Amino acid sequence: MLEDYEGGSDEVQEVFRAGLREIVALRAVLASLEAELVVGARLHGCRWNVLAEDLGLSPGGARKRHLAVDPTPGRKPYRESDLAEVLAELAAPDRT
Q: Residues 39, 69: contact at Cβ < 8 Å?
């Protein structure tokens, strides 16, 4: 396929580089479209386990990937705890 492309070295390199730039642009478009579809599905009651199957992910993986755009009420965006928060939680006196 592309290995058989004939032309000068600079010309061949530019063909490959242009193709890579197009792939990067397409990934951005697809990621945006995926996020829009997830938001629409969540607004219409789709659960994470259903969306995960369509996305080829685990339910937790799908939720983590799209939690920042999840429009459902009461959801907080996923954020890793920092060390100070973990230590404070461990030191809390009412921890059971």
A: yes
Structure tokens at 92: 């809390």
CA gap 68, 83 in Å, rounded: 22
**pLDDT digits over 59-69, tens only?**
999 999 998 88
Average pLDDT of the residues of the chain:
85
Nearest to 55 by CA among 79, 19, 47, 90: 47
Domain residue limits, the chain: 2-91
